[in-house]
Amino acid sequence: MLLLFDIDGTLLLNGADAHAAAVVAALCEVWEVESPQRAHGVEAAGRTDQAIARDILELAGVPPEQFEARRDDFIVAAASHYERLVPDDLSDRLAPYAGEVLAQVSGQERYRCSLVTGNIQQVARLKLGAAGILYPFAEGQGGFGSDSDDRNELPPIARMRAGQRWNGGDAWPAERTVVIGDTPRDIACARADGALVVAVETGPFSADQLSEADVVLKDLRELEAALGSLS
Ligand SMILES: [Mg+2]
Fold first, then answer.
1. Is the pLDDT confidence value at 36 over 70?
2. How many A from CA of 181 to the centre of ligand 1?
3. What percent of the residues of the chain are helix, what percent strand, and what percent coil, each to the nearest 5?
4. Strand locations in 2-76 (E)
5. What is the pLDDT of residues 46-86, one digit of tens each?
6. Dihedral pair phi/psi, residue 224, rounded to 5°
7. Which of 25, 40, 188, 202 has its CA at a distance of 20 to 30 angstroms from the CA of residue 211?
8. How far apart are the CA of 67 and the centre of ligand 1, in A?
9. At 200, which helix (H) or strand (E)?
């Protein structure tokens, strides 16, 4: 079974301050906008870094076409600002049971651990490294906010990459894929791809708001039992 973990609100809680600062610094650098005061009003949960950045820029008066034109420069700049800003140790931001559950599932042949996150790939890897939980996630695997601005496109990208490594080159089957996330957007991206989905209540959304998931958990503690009930 391919496990596609979300990061913020799922594996890490309140671990995105330096990340938000890196995105804003990259916008200021690439488009030379003033430090965007209205960035705080832009919705972030479950969205990709590109989509968030485009909205912040639009509030600063930069039209979306100009974002598209320099998207790659933005991704490079945001990654390099995050490399400078990332705290040395984010292990105190681990979500409840995240460390234990990753240790559990990553040691089993029946599971393949990967990521589906709105974070830019390099940001995601630096963030997980600082939290001490990069080890289950092979380089080159996952679907990231640097791959697309649309979260719905990320699970198929992650399945394609998983298939290249673990399924003889064919995309990993959607019916043996589980998205694990904390927002309705995680649920929507799994549904759009025909994948299963486990939602956790450790982010900003309640069980009611996550009720479209196959399973809703208070936190990651019962993840393995939930996965067992799905397969
Ligand atoms: Mg999340």
1. no
2. 6
3. 50, 10, 40
4. 2-5
5. 999 999 999 999 988 899 999 999 999 999 999 999 999 99
6. -60, -40
7. 40
8. 24
9. strand 196-200
